[in-house]
Amino acid sequence: MTRPQDFPGTVNVRPASGNQPFDVAADGGLYVAQGTLNLFLTRKDSARRHYLATLGPHALLRTARDTVPDGWRLLAVGGPETKVALVPSDEIPATANVQTLDDSIKSTVQRIADAIAAEPERIASLSAQQREALQGAIAGLATVMDGSATPFRPSVTQIGQLTSVLDELGGYLGVTFPPVDRVTAGDSDVIQMQLRAARCRSRVVTLPSRWWKRPGAAYLGFAENGSIPIALIPQRAGYVMRDPADGRVREIDGDLAARFSSTAYVVYAPFPEDASAGAISRSVLKTVRGDLGWLLGFGLLAGVVALVTPLAVAAVFGSVLPTQASGLLAAVTALLAGAAVTLALVTYTQNVVSVRLEGKVAAVLEPGLTDRLLRLPSEFFRKYDTGDLAARAVGLEQIRQLVSGGVLTALLGMVFSLISVGVLFVYSPELGLVALLVISAVLVALGMLNVRSVRQQSTALTDMGNLTAMIYQVIRSISKVRVAGAEQRILARWAIRYRAQQRATYLGSTAQAWVTAITAALPPILALSFYASVTAGFAGDISDGRFLAVLTAAGQFTAALTTLAFAIGPLLAVVPLWHRVKVILDEPAERTGSEQPGALTGKVSVRAVSFAYPGIDESVLSGISIEVEPGEFVAITGHSGSGKSTLLRLILGLDNPTAGVVAYDGKDLRSLDASLVRRQFGVVMQNASPLPGAILTSIVGDSGATEDDAWRAAEAADLADDIRRMPMRMQTIVGEGGLTFSGGQVQRMMIARALVRHPRIVLLDEATSALDDKAQAAVSQRLEQLRTTRIVIAHRLSTIRNADRIYVLEQGRIAEFGTFTELMAHDGPFRELARRQMATPKD
């Protein structure tokens, strides 16, 4: 052990606490006078530390400049009481016990280099696992397959089989599939085409283990190595199929399941076009009819079993006690015990069936509403704030939660407890009449209070929607709020809306409190009415046993009514919730043609197009005509508000022109399946932002593209070098709205997303406005290398300098068009735009 006095010179000891790390780079020795010192190896371009060793008190480490390789640092980090000294080489005692880290440093550098080389593969593998796990958790019905299914192309002999399978699947889902003909069967993926024709959504999934014993969604599976399509229909205990050999329906077991491919389609039925409450209820009933029948049956059985109690009370007090009949008492006791066990089993089974029913209802409602939202026309979303619309969209799920489960059980219990009211009339018609009058008066009072509660809940939900919309807007614009110093004004606006919402909630809760109070008072009121009736002689000569049986039956009914009263409050929210979600369901879905567009060549025609927003007489666009040939680069420019973005929306089919035609390859867009046309686009809209998640996910989306495709798209968008400099590369997390990235990086990420599908047509709306001149030039150069049609909207003229044609819009009309050189050659709107951008300030 080396002591300070062992050194020939003076040792300058200094503190080396944990918050003051330092580089060990000089030749000589590092002496720990007090405490402990941790040594780490770090790369100069990274903050990550790699542990090497810990030096204890009085340890001496020999250091040299060439010990640490280029690009690395040897970092020393001490504890709270650590003190160290740097000792020159010539002052290190010959007898000192000197430590070295040469071997540790070399092995650590090699280990880190190997890890860095394997990092991309590790990250790719981890990413694939995370994507599969995340998609499986969201889907919840089956494990999502990483990739896409091989398209099924039926032979001539299989066309009839596929038609029969789709008819069987459609019969279960309540949809009609068009017949498969020879032309249709030649499509690249006939199944997807048939599903789209029937407006059904689907997912390709990997069938879970022992799937045939866990009924859930309906599958379109494949037998015999994927050559024979089979409809797999869920039943109460498993799945059944129709054998293509003999047409018989067979229950699927393990041996039969082994013949199926591991991948299948999960098919979701859409809501009916008339998405009324009755139509949606009928759609749900097709799926849950069997479970609902079981639930009703068990509810009726529970009501009948409950009759045992008043009958036993009448027997005990009317016959057993007066006659001291011990044998009859034993029989009554056994009967009550059996009734208790039966009622417990019935209640348990009811709850199990209720849970299964909830799952089936959710499997119909949630995909149906999501599909409905995705099919709504774009003008619908301009009518509502995003926050309010999101609150409305979850309304159907809230209704399902309110109606299902305990509320439904309580409602059925109340209905079947009416049997107990019948018992009152059997034992004493007079007391039954008294009970009926009291219950009727109570129900009238409860009805009036519930009407008031529904009115207040409706107001509260509307206020909550407005409040949610405001909060969403504030969160999205929080930077602007802070820059403007508007926090106090925003808080004041929020407080006003929150107070209104809370006031309506309070009034509704007050009404429900009265409902609960009146229901709780019903049993003593009924008992008091019975006692008064008997005392007044209204009930005639009634025995003690029969009177007690009447009290017991009345108690059973009031208990069921009390349970329902506690559940009725949340159930009443169904009415205002339905009125809010009905706005979504009443909106007609986007109308598109059914003609298949095929592979687009890139030819786009805009012929005499005019457009005006509904309810506004003045046209936004008038008489616009543009011709774009395959592979051309066409630019659209003009002042703000001239109609450029509106024209792009018309080209995309997001809005329909009030006059004129938008055509692709000579076919009117209104006659084509717009979704199939848009699948061949690469689009970057103005102010587009990435989805939260990894960069890879943001670029690839649900396109099925690989990470290699994402890198190629990033190269085309001049983003790849930026991604390589990030520690996690393609797995770097993108926050909400891409706030952790620069505006230029976000725009290039959106361009990469647009290019990853290898689109036939690329449409960019101010997609490079946040880039500097150098980055913008690099992106433009890479885009010019693509063999695809490009339609670009831009204010910056350097973006469109190399366009084959430039169209200049003014007040919704084409003012002029031509090449950059042609437009600059004469005095016009374009030259004026150029002059403003090229002007330099005078001294």
UniProtKB/TrEMBL annotation:
InterPro entries: AAA+_ATPase, ABC1_TM_dom, ABC1_TM_sf, ABC_transporter-like_ATP-bd, NHPM_micro_ABC2, P-loop_NTPase, Type_1_exporter
SMART domains according to UniProt: AAA
One GO CC term, this protein: plasma membrane
Keywords: ATP-binding, Cell inner membrane, Cell membrane, Membrane, Nucleotide-binding, Translocase, Transmembrane, Transmembrane helix, Transport
Keyword Nucleotide-binding belongs to the record: yes
Annotated ranges, domain ABC transmembrane type-1: 294-573
Topology in membrane: Multi-pass membrane protein
Main location group: membrane
Subcellular location: Cell inner membrane
Segments passing through the bilayer: 292-321, 327-348, 402-427, 433-451, 513-534, 554-578
ABC transporter domain ranges (all copies): 604-836
PROSITE patterns linked to this entry: ABC_TM1F, ABC_TRANSPORTER_2
Coiled coil: none
Gene Ontology molecular functions: ABC-type transporter activity; ATP binding; ATP hydrolysis activity; ATPase-coupled lipid transmembrane transporter activity
Family per record: Belongs to the ABC transporter superfamily. Lipid exporter (TC 3.A.1.106) family.
Matches recorded under PANTHER family: ATP-BINDING CASSETTE SUB-FAMILY B, ATP-BINDING CASSETTE SUB-FAMILY B MEMBER 6
NCBIfam families named among the record's database cross-references: NHLM_micro_ABC2
Protein name: ABC transporter-like protein
Species annotation: Hoyosella subflava (strain DSM 45089 / JCM 17490 / NBRC 109087 / DQS3-9A1)
